[in-house]
Structures are given as structure tokens and as C-alpha cells.
Amino acid sequence: MTKKIGTGTYVFQNPVEVSAFASIVGQKEKEGPLGKYFTKYSYDEYFKQDSFEKAESFMQKEVLNDVIQKEQISPQDIDFIFAGDLLNQCAGSNFSVRDTPVQFFGLYGACSTMAEGTILAAMTIDGDFAQRAIALTSSHFCSAERQFRFPLEYGSQRTPSSQWTVTGSGCVLLSKSKNKENPHIKDCCPGVVCDMGVTDMNNMGAAMAPAAALTIRRYFDDTKTKPEAYDLIVTGDLGKEGKEMLKILLKKDGISFGKEYDDCGTMIYDCEKQDVHSGGSGCGCSASVLTAYILPNMIKKKYKEVLFITTGALMNPNTSLQGESIPGIAHLVHFSMN
Amino acid sequence: MKSEEYNELVKKVSPKSPILKDTLFAFLIGGTICTIGQLLYTIYYEVAKLSVTDAKTYVSITLILLSALLTGIGIYDKIAKIGGAGTLVPITGFANAMVSPALEFKAEGFVLGLGTKIFAIAGPVIVYGTTASVIYGIIYYFISKFTV
Fold it and tell me: Over 80: is that where the pLDDT of A64 sits?
């Protein structure tokens, strides 16, 4: 049977269970509004490693081991790992899984990686290619800064619309449904690359908002649902400006968000007090908010229906210097407790 | 929505940099750095009795040392966050632009890491600074030749 409805929303024949999840963050995230939900954290930005890249891989390894332990399985019981990060050649993920003998797919979806990996893992399971699959991602403020901006100690001012890369990692273990008390993935809507010609690397939210609007509109059209049907609709890392732009774009399409809408980038930090300007960004932003806040609160029955839309800005520093605009993408996953 | 239309909208929604505040702080902090320089000059010239040229060189060396030190202990970038161009324009900004990549890229080794990346920020200043001085020199040469 076909699982595709409308323009490209995929309904799983058997909803896929989120059977375990784990997160880890750094100091700024622990001190943010969601601090009490982050049980695993480090105030050492090196995580006791000798480089920021190693620290990032260490975070991934930690959350990967955590989910394996929580599920009381061995790595051999996992069929696939889908992982990605922001470093060149996805080095963060490649190094984090090198001691784990599991079939591995490296992904680059920029900050959209969490939903991208989750969709692929869920599809693999519902397609009977796997019993268990993992989606894993991370970002680290210091390793991202050196890749995309200036050295840490270089004195510069950040533009008001710039965002702060989250130091954090998140991992979900998906499996064929056994336990009805766990959140399940009912359907998903993979994104389409969308470029509205924004060239400002310091305004990623505005560059990604059109992609988010496109995915959300397609999803509501395909499923014939409305925002009111969900307890929480959360975008990955649009930040303050991106959030505004998304609302404006959706309003033009006749979709209006109420209280149920929020953005991981503005949830994870207190934008004013923590001096992060527009909010958080990075793969670890949506990943840590999903695994530390959203999924646990679904199990506690605070949220029953959640739309998780991660957004990625698909440029690299060279394309931006060459004057290219920033293509965006947004992947949507529907988590449900029913 | 068209791309131009969208970009107009983005401009409207995005906050602007507080230019007046930034300029004021740049003036105050940049001015403070220059005042420290003047103070050093007075000490070297009046108290230590150095020649004008030596005193000026010593001022530059001291400011570079201070800036490198403050960069190393993680204070310079905090001052720069408030000072902006005020910390960028004086010679201290140049020292910071050299020391910060040196610290950062030490992890990739002293030759291909530190050695290659140390000019990542200061490079353009050196390239276009020397080019400009050559052009200036040529113009000066002709003007002085024909006017004397």
C-alpha cells in the first residue's frame, strides 16, 4: 500500500515507537529556561577532551551510550544509526560512532538533522528494514564558531539578528511498537529546499522561515488538519526574527498559530538575559530540546500531539563569501501519544 | 511571495544595530585606549627620557603586549563586545586579530594550524595596507618631484 498522501506526507502503516532518548548540554543551556530538564551537562566546554571537535564527538558518544543502556540492549541489536552534525565532512558523527559496530549513515542537513535522521530511521523501521534504528546529532558552540565565524577570542560585535550555536547533543532510539506508553511517530513530511534569496549569514532565521512555512503548509494541506489539532508545534531554530517571519508567511496562506507554537531556539535560552540575541541554533538545539523537554513531557501526558519541525540553513562559508543566497530546508515529524 | 518582496519584509522585521549607542561606546573605549597610549608616551618621553622615535615605538610595543595579554586571558573580546570599532581600529585590535587565531588553531599543530591560520583575520589588513602604502609612495614621489 502507498504511504504517501498529498504532496509528500508519509503516514506510517505501524506508528514507530520512540523507545529511548537522551540528551547532554553545556553550561549556557543548563543555565537557560529549560535548565531543570537537562539532567546531563558539563560546565567544561571541552568536556574533559583536548579539542572542541573531540568534545562534540564525546557528547554524541555519551547520548548514544545512554540510549543503549536505557533500552538494555547491546549495539548489535541496533540496525542503523543516522547521524550528522555541522563540522566539515560530518566529522563529529563519524568519530562518535567509530567504536560502535552498527551500520551507519552520515547526514548533512545543517540544523534540520534531528528530524531528518528521525524520519529516515522511522521509514527504515516501518519499511521492515530494521527493528531498531537511531537518530543522533550534535552541535558545539566553539567548534561551530571556528568553522563558520571568527576565533573565540577575537573581539567582534554580533549583529542583533544573529543566533548562538547550542552546545548539546540529542539521540533517539526508534523501534517497532511494543510499549503504548511511549510516544509514537505517526507521520512525517520531509522538506523541500527553498531559497528566497536571503544572503545575510547573520539572519539565518529569516533564511529558513520560508522553508518551514512551505513544509508546514504542505503538511496541513496533505493531512487536512489545523494547528489547533496539536498541543505543541515547535520549529527547530528560527530564533526571534525567524519565528516572526514564519508567522507572517503562514498568515498569508491562511494558517494562524496560537499559543501552541514555539521555537526551540527561543525556548532554550533567555534571549535578553543570556545575551544570545535572536536565540539558539545548531543541530543540538532542536535535538536537546526534543530529548530533554518535549519527549519526557509527552510521556508525562503534558503534550499528546506534537509537530516537530527542524530547520536547516544549507550554505557553507565559501558560498556565502561568493555572494550566494542561503537555501533553507525544514523536515516535519509528528509525534503522538495516541 | 517574490524574493524581493520577502527580503523587504525581512528588513522590516529584523532589528537594526543600535548605531548611536555603538558609536558612543566605540568613541569612549577607543578614546580610552588612545589616552593610555598618550600616557605611556608621556612616561617614556618625559620620565624615561627616551627619544621621540623610541618613545613612540615603545608605546606601540606596550599596547600590543597588553592587547595580546588581555586576549590570552579572555578579556579583550569582552571589551570589544562593547567597544566595537573602538577596540578594532587602534593597534590593539591588530594584536587581537593575530593572537586570537593563534590561540584557536594551536589545536591543529604549530605549523599547519597556528602558522597558516594566524593571518586569517589580519591578512587582508597587511595585504591592502602595504599595497596602499606603495600607491601612496608612488603618488608622493611624483608630487614631490614636480612641485619642487
Answer: yes
